[in-house]
């Protein structure tokens, strides 16, 4: 007599198990989806996807976009995985990454001494949307020669756990090519158009190698005065200057502070210093508070003797700091919540890296 098959697990029990899969290990959900049709329908369903993202909160770091050259000498933006996720296309030849947020990467063309072209790329779906040109992109009196761009979700009420395919904004702030005038433009995907130029007081040249950060309704950029921080209010399009914490290393990464609000990370020797902005009675900047320090040299994996680190970037709202060293261009991430310290791999020049965070579930592969 043949042995009876064990009873199938109840779908509710299967869901509770799969909801506990770590979001930075998406291959586990992929394996579950090919077990049987009921499991596939479960993990690809909108209800499971919503509960999975709500359970885990901030999306995981899936990779680092590293700007580099290939063997033929062409500049490109390369997706360097930090886990098991692999994008449909790892390289975007003749493009360079300048920002990433809410599941999108902002690219510009890599040709120097030419008109600037920008595009928004979704590494998960490999969709690339070229944006219309504006006067500042063309060689003229309005050209920006020093600028920073940022991309962000524009959907009302969005929790930013799954922004794929929704409306977005692109913001560029820069300094004019012929004088020290500062201006900005905002692109809306819903209108498929750029705003009129807004003029601002000159607050310094923007550090193109430092990623911006989004805190509530403002973008923050690092400028070279002292150095300092430029606050760009998305509602009013006004800019204000903020001083940086006292630093012994000129590099700084902007981030969302652990308690909310603006934060930043700096390096002092081999210590990672985490700061939060202090706000005065009128809501303005009144200084910085050192929240804690992390000794990085004690976290380096066995066999490494790296002692000099540099802050490369931070993951917006993800509690992850990306650090690197000039000794062999090694690159690491440190998770501020779990304390996990991981090597990313060789990522070329430290300044040319943009972190990419997003949830990835099986429906992305089959849609």
TrEMBL record:
Domain F-box: start-end pairs: 11-50
Identification of the protein by name: F-box domain-containing protein
Classification via InterPro entries: F-box-like_dom_sf, F-box_dom
Species this protein is from: Zea mays
One Pfam family named in its UniProt record: F-box
